[in-house]
Write a structure and sequence with these properties.
By secondary structure, the protein is an all-alpha fold. It folds into two domains: about 90 residues, Rna Polymerase Sigma Factor, Chain: A (Orthogonal Bundle); about 150 residues, Winged helix-like DNA-binding domain superfamily/Winged helix DNA-binding domain (Arc Repressor Mutant, subunit A, Orthogonal Bundle). About 65% of the residues lie in helices and about 0% in strands. The chain contains eleven helices and no strands. The longest helix is centred in the N-terminal third of the chain and has 22 residues. The radius of gyration is 20 Å and the shape is elongated. The N and C termini lie far apart (about 45 Å).
Length: about 260
């Protein structure tokens, strides 16, 4: 990236016109440089739930490829904010890269699926959010073992709000963000489905236990970092990661039902 210009006096709209209309490579390079901070921002958020063995430099590399792809595909005429579109592409590229690395042990993947299934089945029977003790009993493990599993998942699983759209049984199921289309026309069926999913997601968030709901709201809707949320809740950052993991598992189960 060092060959890219550090500054460019042209405004953003002008750069988009020069690249999309005239195909100027210099304009594309300037756009990459201008939006590069998005990659660092997303990598910081994705890295929250990853072990320290994962190099953040790898995330930045994958994310840069996602940024370039976003610039190539973006249509300024649609009236969509580029940052919103790009963040989804950048994060998706990072997730794809991490999955290709296959760094999560098979045993951990298996325990993750067990936990998701147990929460889904239990809450389906109870008709409410299950307590930690109830989930542990469902799995036939002690609370110490349950807490250790949650801690392991918070450090190894790539979980996010986007992932709840996929089938928990299918780790590679497409997310809403990966289905963004480039056509100008709005598909009424697609919009109706998305509206229905948003309503379902809102219900899932409302049904979460209070502290898990607060973590989801502060992280995804208020844009706070894990450290900032930890300060507000007066808990450790690792505890916030655990609450985040449990919340996403519950929502995956709820939406699967």
């Amino acid at each position: 990236m060092s060959s890219l210009p550090e500054t460019d006096e042209r405004n953003t709209d002008e750069l988009w016109r020069e690249y999309k209309v005239r195909g100027q490579k210099s304009a594309r390079d300037a756009l990459i440089a201008r939006y590069a901070p998005l990659v660092k921002y997303v990598s910081g958020r994705v890295a929250v739930n990853l072990p320290k063995t994962v190099d953040e430099g790898d995330l930045v590399g994958y994310g840069t490829l996602g940024l370039i792809d976003a610039i190539e595909r973006f249509d300024p005429g649609r009236g969509v904010k580029f940052e919103t579109y790009a963040i989804a592409r950048i994060r998706g590229s990072m997730i794809d890269g991490l999955r290709a690395m296959d760094w999560v042990p098979v045993s951990v993947r298996h325990r993750n699926r067990q936990m998701e299934t147990a929460i889904k089945d239990l809450e389906n029977r109870l008709g409410r959010s299950a307590t930690d003790q109830e989930v542990a009993d469902e799995l036939g493990i002690t609370m110490d073992e349950y807490n250790q599993r949650i801690q392991d998942m918070a450090g190894s699983a790539i979980l996010s709000l986007e992932d709840v759209w996929g089938n928990p049984e299918e780790g590679d199921a497409p997310t809403r963000m990966s289905e963004v289309r480039d056509e100008r026309a709005v598909d009424p069926l697609d919009e109706a489905e998305w509206s229905s999913r948003k309503d379902a997601l809102a219900e899932c968030i409302t049904a979460l236990p209070e502290r898990e709901r607060l973590v989801i709201t502060l992280y995804y809707f208020e844009g706070l970092t894990v450290k900032e949320i930890a300060y507000i809740l007066k808990v450790s950052p690792s505890r916030v990661s655990q609450l985040h993991t449990k919340a996403v598992l519950r929502m995956r189960g709820s939406l699967a039902r």
